[in-house]
Amino acid sequence: MKRMSILLSLLVFVSSQLFAQIVEPVKWTFESKQDGTGATLIFKATIEEGWHLYDTQLPEGGPIKTTIHFSDSTLFDFDGGLTKDPQPTEVFDKTFNMKLGYFSKQAVLTQKIKLKSSGKTEIKGFVEFMSCNDESCTPPTEAEFAFNLNSSDSKTEVSSTVAQAESVDATKGSGNLLLFLFFSFLAGLAAILTPCVFPMIPMTVSFFMNSGESKIKSRLYAAFYGFSIIAIYTIVGTLVAVIFGPGAANWLSTHWIPNLIFFAVFMLFAFSFFGMFEIVLPSWLVNKSDKQVDKGGFMGSFFMALTLVLVSFSCTGPIVGAILVESAGGQVLKPIVGMFGFSLAFALPFTLFALFPAWLNNLPKSGGWLNSVKVVLGFLELALGLKFLSVADQTYHWGILDREVYLALWIVIFVLLGFYLLGKLKFAHDSDVKHVSVPRLLLAIISFSFVVYLAPGMFGAPLKAISGYLPPQATHDFDLHQIIRDEIKLAQPQSGMVNSVGGSSDELCEKPKFGEFLHLPHGLEGYFDYEQGMACARKQNKPVFIDFTGHGCVNCREMEANVWSDPRVLERLKNNFVVIALYVDDKSTLPESEWITSSYDGKVKKTLGKKYTDFQISRYGVNAQPYYVLLDGKEQKLVEPRAYDLNADRFVEFLDSALAEFERRK
Fold this sequence. Notes:
The chain is 47% helix and 16% strand.
């Protein structure tokens, strides 16, 4: 109990210290000077010693630049450009690993304008900025301004007013953090529904049914279990972000070692649920628990929480990675708040079931219902555990678990589950099923119906409802749909041959690098190397569609199956864009001539996945997939990038707005 109190106190202390770091290193004052119909707007920043304010012009991939936003620019015309006093100092910034310009101690930005109408005119807006010192950075912050001007046709004396300073304050930072906390909480709730998290809930119940000698002690352990989940994600997860960077999350969710371990763990739990053996804590831990009951109980709860975090990380990795990448800009507070919100939601169902494990004991005992529940969960563990093996198989191109093999295993598993529910299959600890109850019959119908749904997938059907959990269509050896498309293609006259991209057969500028083992869905043709794809886009004078994706990315497969397959989206991707798919988790080793040294962490990237993980982080400050970026030939963004969104109408609008902007820039 004392150990738990110490840990709670430590977490509260760390949190309070971090929130205390919301500082105000930059204060703004705003002044206007009028002369007839003209006015000079002065934006003055006072900067604390040791801090610096970033310039108004910065290279892409760096911090937030200082930008003046006007609410209504139709009230005036700019009279010249923005002037700076003093001129920003250019130095190599260690935080962002690039040369940046910034102001120290003071910055005065001046903008001259000409008013369009007579009478009183109020000009409102805000300054967006970011400041750093040698150790940390403030979040991007806004300082609001309002100038009350009085236009006149005749010249007037120069007048001066001082606007109320809307300086950086803790409430603005806290507002952003509260919003981030809320979305992180929602992400935690979503993570519970992933295939490697949801089946872990009954394991928690089973563990705590035998963990304590009394209700009070069992619930105390359960509470500590929930606290441990939050502490592990919040403290350890943030340390991973700060020390190793977001690439560690990618390694844990895609490398063959953790994925094979997770696969083995799921198989072991499945066999245990089938009655082959019973999973118990290691003997050394049990012996220690016998000697020091309180200590052993808390340690058991902690290690159960640690096991949950590790086993579920392959599914939660993309979500957690999006939160951890916030540390890339030196923002220590934001990833901690995000991880806390995520883990709080994530721990809720596990803690509630752990607090009340007797819920399972209240189920009917006759007919071995409790064991039947465990066996059904065993079948689910068996099916869902294949996802981990599939991820390793895809990222390393082993070719042992292609789509049809995966589907065949699922079909057999769910057929056996259906027979079990009907009482035609019996395990060691099962009671005789004298008659089939209505719930068992309904579950059997669902299981067999799912098998019927899976069957067409053996011949190439897309199976959109579960596409995110299956190997990609390109791994299917007997794809009837593709065979028919190829036959139609061969039947076309050679002079007017049309390939699967919907254009001429030579639409690609050259054979795509890595095309022998990487493929695009729906017969699309494209590239898997950024430089090669950009060169082709410049040659064809087309915009670029960059798809940051991954072999183990569930959301990527869902987007491809449900959004890319929309005829409107597919037509635009085929005819109007050069598609570049950048796999961030592919383990293929690059030739030494293509190795890069990261501008983000200074490490040499030797594999295809690491190269484009670093590219996504350093260029766009994001480490979540899918992530779609539309560029012109000069590598400038046409519109703001988009992420996971299953609304096809919005995706069409996203593509069309980029095409319109591309035409405007010609």
